[in-house]
Design a protein that fits this description.
The chain is mostly helical. It folds into two domains: about 60 residues, Orthogonal Bundle (Arc Repressor Mutant, subunit A); about 50 residues, Diphtheria Toxin Repressor, domain 2 (Orthogonal Bundle). Helices cover about 70% and strands about 5% of the residues. The chain is built from six helices and two strands; from the N terminus they run H-H-H-E-E-H-H-H. It has a two-stranded antiparallel sheet with strand order 1-2. Helix 1 packs across helix 2, helix 1 packs across helix 4 and helix 4 packs across helix 5. The chain is elongated and about 50 Å long.
């Protein structure tokens, strides 16, 4: 997994968890992604250094504006692509896996074209 893709996955996970949990902690992210807590801790350090998250003394993780913007963009791509694939008849589990792969590499032009196509049909 490329570094940027990994960062985007972490940010997307923080966003999704923050919608269902009052606070997000490293252990929540590790459990959600099935990663070791030590790996998540290293990733959180990198995201904090890039200014994408803040971490309180209690260990609560919050997206900064830049982190939230990235997470929302990736999440929109994930939802749109997976729903589109399901609509085309792809089984849900395969559509979700494929959306995870495609969401990071698809150009903005292609994504906008897919959104336009969906809206028109």
């Amino acid at each position: 997994m490329r570094n940027n893709e990994s960062s985007e996955d972490y940010l997307e996970t923080i966003l999704m968890l923050s919608e269902v949990k009052p606070v997000v902690r490293s252990v929540d992210i590790a459990n959600e992604l099935g990663y070791k807590k030590s790996s998540v801790s290293v990733a959180m350090k990198n995201l904090r250094e890039r200014g994408n998250i803040t971490v309180t003394d209690e260990g609560y993780i919050y997206l900064t504006e830049s982190g939230k913007k990235i997470a929302e963009s990736v999440y929109e791509r994930h939802k749109t692509i997976s729903e589109w694939l399901i609509g085309l008849g792809v089984p849900g589990n395969i559509a979700l896996e494929d959306a995870c792969r495609v969401e990071h590499d698809l150009s903005e032009e292609s994504f906008e074209a897919i959104k336009k196509y969906i809206a028109e049909h």
